[in-house]
Write a structure and sequence with these properties.
Layout: E1 2-10, H1 15-27, E2 32-37, E3 41-43, E4 54-63, H2 67-80, E5 95-101, E6 106-107, E7 112-113, H3 122-131, H4 143-147, E8 156-157
Antiparallel strand pairs: 1-4, 1-5, 2-4, 3-4, 3-8, 6-7
Bound molecules: 7,8-dihydro-7,7-dimethyl-6-hydroxypterin (ROI).
Length: 158
């Protein structure tokens, strides 16, 4: 079994319902055997500020899916929820990012793991700390140590 972390984010069309629906889709999938979810957090948009606040969470799964089939699944869930993405770094109905897959480094055209921006993003690291505070990140710090270096003052526990 493989362990993967997935970042969830939404800022359109009842974001909390979007995240919960996506989590149900993951939980019900036959190739996903365990699912743990962080708390949900409200967050200010990173990138353009003229868009609604986001809701973010992180899920930890155990899965028999290889990375690309897992990416395909995440993208199909995004599509099922009729993901709208109007512009780069603009508002979106549902974003599912594959953050980590075991301890693997993957550098493919479609998929880079660990996720390129996760270390900079409080809205990823804070929920990840709920699930895996002692996990060692690619910079050698634990999630908890790394969290203490980030400004998370804009995150609201829901
Ligand atoms: N900002 C926040 N707070 N949360 C997100 O999930 C998020 N996702 C994005 C961009 C537009 C970069 N900003 C975000 O893709």
């Amino acid at each position: 079994m493989n362990e993967a972390f997935i970042g969830l984010g939404s800022n359109l069309e009842t974001p909390l319902a979007q995240l919960k629906q996506a989590l149900i889709q993951l939980e019900q999938h036959s190739d996903i055997s365990e699912l743990a979810v962080s708390s949900f957090y409200g967050s200010k948009p990173v990138g353009p500020q003229d868009q609604p606040d986001f809701i973010n969470a992180v899920a930890k799964i155990k899965t028999s899916l290889a990375p690309i089939p897992l990416l395909d699944l995440l993208q199909s869930i995004e599509q099922n929820q009729r993901r709208v993405r109007e512009r780069h770094w603009g508002p979106r109905t549902l974003d599912l990012d594959l953050l980590r897959y075991n301890n693997e480094k993957i550098d493919m055209e479609r998929l880079i793991v660990p996720h390129r921006f996760m270390l900079e993003r409080g809205f990823v690291i804070k929920p990840m700390a709920d699930l895996a505070p002692d996990l060692i990140l690619e910079n050698g710090s634990t999630v908890m140590q790394h969290l203490s270096t980030l400004d998370t003052s804009d995150l609201v526990l829901l």
